[in-house]
Amino acid sequence: MQLEQRRILITGGGSGIGLALAHALAPTNDVVVAGRDAQKLERAKASLPALHALQLDVTSESAARAAVAWMTNHLGGIDLLVNSAGVLRGQAFEAAADSAMGEEVAVNLLGSARMTRVALPFLRQSDDGAVVFLSSAVVLGASPGVAVYAATKAAVHSLPAPCGPNCGVRSRSSTSSHHGSTPNSPAGSGGLGCRQRAWRTRSCAPSAVTNSRYTSGRSRRSA
User: Fold this and answer.
1) What are the pLDDT digits (tens) for 141-172?
2) What digits encode the pLDDT tens for the residues 108-149?
3) Catalytic positions, please?
4) Would you put residue 149 in left (φ > 0), alpha (ψ -120 to 50) or beta?
5) I want to staple 152 with a disulfide (CB 3.0 to 4.6 A). Which of 44, 56, 109, 116 is the partner?
6) Taking the model in full, what pTM does it have?
7) What's the half-sphere exposure (Cβ side, CA atoms, 13 Å) at 63?
8) Which residues contact 133 (CB under 8 A, 6 or more apart)?
9) Are residues 17 and 132 in contact, defined by beta-carbon separation less than 8 angstroms?
10) Which residues sit opposite 151 in a β-bridge?
11) What is the largest CA-CA distance in the chain?
12) Which ranges in the chain belong to alpha helices (H)?
């Protein structure tokens, strides 16, 4: 995918990997960062005025549709959806509350699936529509306190394979060490690393599912 003059929506874009990607992509694209936390969105906008900021709860069908409609009404469409919104509620599995587990499933898995489903008809109208899903390296090995989070990310990791060829758009899975924060400035080492990997993802073969490892700190929410 040519990452120039693209209309890009990044969920969970107010902080962490989502914001680092926004900084990397904004110089040559129309980038919209979306999330639930208005203060994070304000800080993201202040860090890079070229960004568009949009409040979005990916657990809401109406909010998902409103976000895609905003892209269509204000930017003329959408070329790339980056599913970066995620929640990590680190806790011992036996002590995990239903509400915490439910939130991880609702945001990490169902939120990504919902945003993709809602955006697909508009991505097909693009000359090079694509979807990126952010998974996690915790699916590859044991990590204490993140059992349900790891399960949701394993499920997210499997979404691109059936989605791409069946839905008429390119799809990718990128793997992070944890859903967390990286430096907000692209000048920081975390931001630069994310930028390098974002371009590497672009160069992969259309049929491939890409696993790019990002290094990030542990965070409770990027949604």
Assistant:
1) 767 789 999 999 999 988 887 665 556 666 55
2) 999 999 999 999 999 999 988 999 999 888 887 767 789 999
3) 149
4) alpha
5) 109
6) 0.77
7) 12
8) 83, 112, 116, 156, 157, 159, 160, 171, 172, 173, 174
9) no
10) none
11) 48
12) 16-25, 38-47, 61-75, 98-104, 112-123, 147-158, 160-167, 189-202
